[in-house]
Write a structure and sequence with these properties.
Layout lengths: L18 H14 L12 H6 L17 E4 L4 E2 L6 E3 L3 H18 L5 E3 L5 E6 L11 E5 L3 E6 L2 H14 L15 E2 L2 E5 L5 E7 L7 H13 L4 E5 L1 E2 L2 E2 L8 H4 L16 H13 L3 E8 L4 H6 L28 H16 L5 E5 L8 H17 L3 E5 L11 E5 L7 H12 L3 E4 L2 H4 L21 H5 L17 E8 L7 H8 L2 H11 L5 H9 L2 H6 L16
Parallel strand pairs: 3-4, 3-5, 5-7, 10-11, 10-19, 11-14, 14-15, 15-16, 16-17, 17-18, 18-19
Antiparallel strand pairs: 1-9, 2-8, 6-7, 6-9, 12-13
Bound molecules: ligand TNX.
Ligand TNX binds next to loops.
Pfam families: Glyco_hydro_20 (PF00728), Glyco_hydro_20b (PF02838)
Family: Belongs to the glycosyl hydrolase 20 family.
InterPro entries: Beta_hexosaminidase_sua/sub, GH, Glyco_hydro_20_cat, Hex-like_dom2, HEX_bac_N
Length: about 550
Amino acid sequence: MRLLRPRPGPLRAPRSPGPRLLGALLLVAVAATGCLGGGGDAGSGGEQSRRPPVSSAPLGNVVPAPASVSPSGPGYTLAPGAAIRIDDRPAVRAVGDYLAAILRPSTGYRLPVTPGAGSDGIQLRLDPAQRALGAEGYRLTSSWTTVSVVAREPAGLFRGVQTLRQLLPAAVEKDTRQTGVWRVPGGTITDTPRYAYRGAMLDVARHFFTVDQVKRYIDQLALYKINKMHLHLTDDQGWRITIDSWPKLTTVGGATAVGGGKGGFYTKAQYRELVAYAASRHMDVIPEIGLPGHTAAALAAYPDLSCNGFRDPVHTGLDTGFSSLCVGKEKTYDFVDDVIRELAAMTPGEYLHIGGDEADSTSKKDYRIFMDRVREIVARHGKKVIAWHEITGAGADEKVTAQYWGTDRTEKGERKRVAEAVKKGTKLILSPADRVYLDMQYTYRHPLGLSWAGRIEVDRSYDWDPARYLEDDGIPDEAVLGVEAPIWTETLVNSAQLEQMAFPRLLGVAEKGWSGGGIPWAEYEPRLAAQAGRMSALGIAFHRSPTVAWPKN
Ligand code: TNX
């Protein structure tokens, strides 16, 4: 039993203390009766393989926290002969096949995905009449005979399936046969997201990550209901996406990386493959082309795009703010137009990210001229602009979404500019760097990561509320589209390192996005601890933060 109460987080009620608060209170109540935490998820993957996973987590012991949880009855036990019963529609079948692919290797059951009704097995159903479930909500009901997930949209079924996974013992995530009793606790979860935008950003420019590495990350994000994959495709140290009309961007600009190592880039076919893979996880890809700064790789390939025309090599250092496209040259806009046109054509999502940060070598006047033109180009190619919050100094309005990456130390004046844009209708994605920058070190002893925004342990990373984060600056919750956790890769070169930095902080960001910021750390911490076995079973070498009472192996 875990009655540990670490440093309590700010006990703020969510804006509308509706079902989500009830759910949270219920979990706290469950914790107080001793059912949550140590007695729940059977711990690490190692432990799972030594003894059969008989008891699964109590209903609701999942991340992100569901909006409402009503336990009842003993629940459902997956039988060897069970089927996954689906509505006969391709999008529902795809969710059924996805679930079957997770469950079959570990359970060893056949789990046929079968269209049509039935009163047993796992059921995945669409019900358009369930309007309150919205675009991503679902209702999961676990009874003696069935466990069913009902949603209005296929995306809701997919999110519900993530909850179902987490209600099964962690060993279900393994890719080899396990012996176990695959029980889902009884009752009903009704769940919808607090924010529509729940993102993660991966910097593939500072170091390149292959298609398979990105897919692995996408799969990990899906488990925690992230729905936007922001790919930071270009920077001073590398251009990673093929643009047919400017071929040297990748052949020259993609050839290296931070530290001068091997670079890489995605062909258009590979990029499309990533977009399709993300879509199969009900996730949009948001590609970012950094403009007008962060362009040394492009300028190395095409020196004409700079004002001085000198050919510099692709940058391999860590510094920023020294490169700029030449705002006064018409050729710059031909370039931007071609890039945006080709990128828009292979990106089905509604957004393109145009960077706009740290343009320290572009004058204020030029920055504004440039951003005005680029915004018009993006709109002409049928997409909406996202840019880092510096764009709010360049006449942002309702057509722009700004990604705020400030910290507790960000100057009032800068926040005021953001607030002014919000008054004109700009929406915000919140990525406070001293909370959710996953590339920041955990502690000064941690070997990976940077520290310019601070050292961020897991508890501090969770200690903020998107709805109130900028309220002192007059920015209301209504302006917040959602949250995003960026991971910059100056110091990170492989999946193990990425995962060490992202996990477990990413889970907290996912929860801010799905459940809102009103849940205290003391309630979250045991739920997070209970994810240890699942992350281990998935091969994620997460940071065993001392701020969390992880189960003993
Ligand atoms: C700031 S956040 C940057 C990036 C760096 C990152 C490292 C932002 C918009 N710019 O260029 O990679 O810090 O943490």
